[in-house]
Amino acid sequence: MANRFVGPIKRGEIATIEELKSRFKALAKETHPDLGGDGASALDFSALRSEYEAALTDFHRHRFGLSASLAGRSHSRGQGSPQADGLGGNPSRSSTVFSRPELYRRLREVRRGGFPKIPRHEKERLRYEYRRYLALALLEARGGDWRARFEAFEAAQLRGEAVGQAENLGTELEYAGQDLARGLCLLDSILAWHSSGLEPERAGIILEFGKLVLDLDGGGGAVMGGQSARRLGEGLGGHPLLGFLACLVEDLSEGASLV
Considering the entire predicted model, what is its pTM? Predict the structure, then answer.
């Protein structure tokens, strides 16, 4: 009998390991002999658990169309440990452990992959979603609202891209195309700085972010003039275009990750 989890994973109906675990728990209540009533049996539950373990072990391969050889090369190419990737082992055995250099490496890979991106075909979509998935896992492990801010920044950029490609160019943008481009340029500068760690570049990033805050948030001018990066980012958590950049600018004080 076909594994009942694999099809939903490939179709994206089960998009994360957490969703896979939830689906298994729901089915387990129906098949476990102590929970499912008269129609349940130990044999059915054993088969379900075997299918779940198999789907869990190969989750990323099913979800993103990865070959076994690609999964095996993930670590050797310096893309992080098998545990961090959830490949080369059972991803349920360890959750993603936060690594600051690994986070910035993943963000650079997503950006190089075309972020923010609307993939053109299925193969490209799976490849891009895999990179994005790994970055999101580390943003989640970072804690706070880093992941939510990243997704808000991404959504603002994608809305601008979609409007720019639409036939009705009179549709209003949430932010001007120039401001969206400035946000991406700042992101690129921050990711590049984590490879150099040069102080003049860091100061330039903080200054440019302050200018963007002033232009988009109005009150940003009050935090210019030598104030700290932490002060510069205060109150911007809910701002779609500035919230994630504020996280990254504040994090500059921790030093370059040298990825």
Answer: 0.73
